[in-house]
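Let us practice reading a record.
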Amino acid sequence: MRLSWLAACLALSVACGSMRVQPIIDSRAQPLVSPVDLLVFAPHPDDEVIGAAGLVRRAVESGKRVLIVFVTNGDAYANAASALVHRSVDELRAGDYLVLAAARQREAIDADRILGVNPRDLIFLGYPDGGLAELYADGGHDRIQSPATGLTMTYGPVERDYHTLAHGKPAPYTREAALADVQEIIENARPARVVVTDPGDLHPDHQATYDLVRDAIAAAGFKGELLTFVVHSGPGWPWPIGATRLESPGHRRSGSRSRPWSRLSRSRPSTRISPSSIHRSTDCSSSRS
């Protein structure tokens, strides 16, 4: 699919979908990435809220700088696209998934603003939702194609993709390009803490996001603290079902492994932000010693 077609789809409400995609917003000022205290990598918009909302809110309240990076636009969720454009899943077209991407970018901006994160501190990489595992597994230079949009290069329907903002053109859907973007962000952000989905998470995109971040922090010589969180881990997760208990989660199974977890409690119960359970990684050589 040519980028010219994408540009037309993003500008008009033609056959690409029944909802109009708003013009691209370029709200950033240079430099694109500056030093931060907390750097969060989310495979899709909403994962950062599900897994690390308490950590993000606490950092903001203590005056720390937070940067959130979305690896994909979350554009491959067929049921959500169907509900959004009022078309059955079987009738969805590539442009309908672009409409979904725009909606999810806007939702991420709104949700993280509630946590206290400025939209300028959100980065959208624009790699393929539902295709990160394939992208990571392919060590060659051949770009993969998004299973939803049909695209082979990074994009952003509301906020431009990072590579276009930083380098003037989109990046191909290859492991080499994705790893370079992630590493560049880590090197420029110089965070004390990096937070990402756990390798035991059962979602392939979440596993691949961890793999990209693990490789990037090793290449960047990151010496800070690596924390991970789980969103998908099969029956019995999140633990416990229902309201979170007050005791520490301790060792809980994540994917196929039992892992130590820490519980982050909110000091002010009136704040409507859920506590988070996070794992302090001991798997990565670049974790804090």
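A brief commentary: The chain has eight helices and eight strands.
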